Amino acid sequence: MEKIDNYVPRSLEDYNRLYNESITNPESFWEKIASTFTWKKKWKNVLSFDFKKPEFKWFEGGKLNISENCLDRHLIDKPNQTAILFEPNDPNEKHQEISYKELHQRVCRFSNVLKKNNIEKGDRVCLYMPMVPELAIAVLACSRIGAVHSVVFAGFSSTALAARINDADCKMLVTADGSFRGSKTIDLKSIADEALASCPSVEVSIVLKRINSNIELNDIDKWWHDEISLASNECEATGIDSEDPLFILYTSGSTGKPKGMVHSCGGYMVYSEYSFKNVFQYNKGDVYWCTADIGWITGHSYIVYGPLLSGATTVMFEGVPSFPDFGRFWEICEKHSITHFYTAPTAIRALAKHPKSFVSKYDLNSLKVLGTVGEPINEEAWNWYNEVVGKKSCPIVDTWWQTETGGIMISSIAGVTDQKPTFATKPMIGIQPVLLDNDGQEISDSNTNGILAIKYPWPSIARTIYGDRERYKKVYFTAYPGYYFPGDGAFRDDDENYRITGRVDDVVIVSGHNLGTAPIEDAINLHENVVESALVGFPHDVKGNALYAFVILKDDSKTENINTEINDLISKTIGPIAKPDKVQIVPGLPKTRSGKIMRRILRKIACGEKNNFGDISTLLNPEIVELIVKGY
Ligand code: WT7
Description:
- The protein is an alpha/beta fold.
- Among the domains are: 1-36, no CATH class; 507-629, 2-Layer Sandwich (GMP Synthetase, Chain A, domain 3), CATH 3.30.300.30.
- It is built from 19 helices and 31 strands.
- The strands form 8 sheets. The protein has an 8-stranded mixed sheet, sandwiched between helices. Strands 6-5-18-17-19-20-21 form a 7-stranded mixed sheet, with helices on both faces. Strands 22-23-25-26 form a 4-stranded antiparallel sheet, with no helix packed on it.
- A hairpin with a 5-residue loop joins β25 and β26.
- The mean pLDDT is 95.
- Bound molecules: 5'-O-[(S)-butoxy(hydroxy)phosphoryl]adenosine.
């Protein structure tokens, strides 16, 4: 059998050679990578696609099981190696090292629990859980039997959870009695119960005991520990068609309800392992830690699937970087001799605000590679990461990608290709980015800005939006026909390095969380005294961006508790992460003659601009601009 390591670049020459091969002959290239996995049945066709439909099929006709590739494959050569290293929220609670052998058994047991509770191939299972090993176990148990997991980040509110459960018609919810987060205990179960009151599709809910509460179970609830105690340690992995769905993961859009991105089994498996091995250059004995939550794509691809497919040791951390103090990340790095550390710019900026002694107190000599993801990293944060954490001796990989892309698209390869601060740099092997102008023409010049697009399919591209193929087509494939449009702008330098400049749509990235402005406006508008609202992002030195809400009230005299009430509504419908930093009551909003809010102007006002608004004569109500500025 071919070995994937033979295709992982170890030098710049390797990268250039493999990159060229991957674009001149993509099918034979990806066929070789795919051949390194365990398939139950070989594929008939490597790739068929049509950007117009749009439709992408990878390794069609093949049958596989990703959980088998994550676990069973490694039982021969590394049964006792740690697969998951769990570091709890409370530093005084003992950490856990779960070997591949043990993880395999625990996943099998939970797979049997799913089956016993009537979960079959294709059924959707919602996971609303803390960052504990059981979450990864539930993910792998679903994929082992072909059930489709939909992980919902445990910071979402009951309304947001219910909307996601209902959108995917989930048959089961797996949750916990609560979760620990820093000094707080979160009552996940009550949130879940509130959600389930409006989720008729859910037949069973499995509840993990995490905080040792003495809650009473409802009729549809079953304790995790009771269920697994009766289950067998063996469960054969079901053969799943390459193009069958593996999971649904929700991401915000610029309009309306969240989009349930659907990823399929074969292509996602191939790309998540290959990209993990490339970017991070993981070697035997390394201990890799990604600080994301499994509720986001970063956790799916680079805590669970990518590392486990690669037979790596992957760390799961339940807590937060500030508890018990701002040295927690570095304490964990020292404690477990972390070699690879992957986090978000917002975390770096927050930690860089505190004395360097929080870092220097710990021995970070084990670190070899640092990574960032989620938003552009500013130079100051990059330098701090490089100097204070990496002691200028660890390559930094700035990885640009999305929920929709399934895996890293543009990034340097640690120690192999060149890094450049604030630039994600070069495309991954097999990825073909281009810059487009506003008319959708490819820009060939260097040193230019443009709209970032991808011109050829890659194995882990999301296949659709669950239940809404039209929206999938409209959002990603319509504005620039023949390309995948991610919604970001980019700058390309003389050496073909890409720097991501930010969103070109109404999505704002706050502390690395992708937030659509429309759903938050909808939440604000639920307030009985609100007529209309408009939300924009503005730069924030820790969060990257913060939100600024402009709100028109019915009765201007009733403003007393308006900020708190708006914040409560947002927390309840979406989650606390979507709360604006600033709420301004305004007499009106700048509108075009067709009634569209001119967000460009509001963005400028939110940044503190007072005069330079460009041509506002086309506005229906130009006089409003001055009034809003006065109230700023
Ligand atoms: C959006 C996708 C990929 C996992 C986390 C976010 C922004 C992501 C970078 C980066 C600049 C970045 C983009 C992208 N983004 N990584 N390295 N540099 N911007 O996934 O929630 O789907 O958000 O995050 O704007 O489109 P997501």
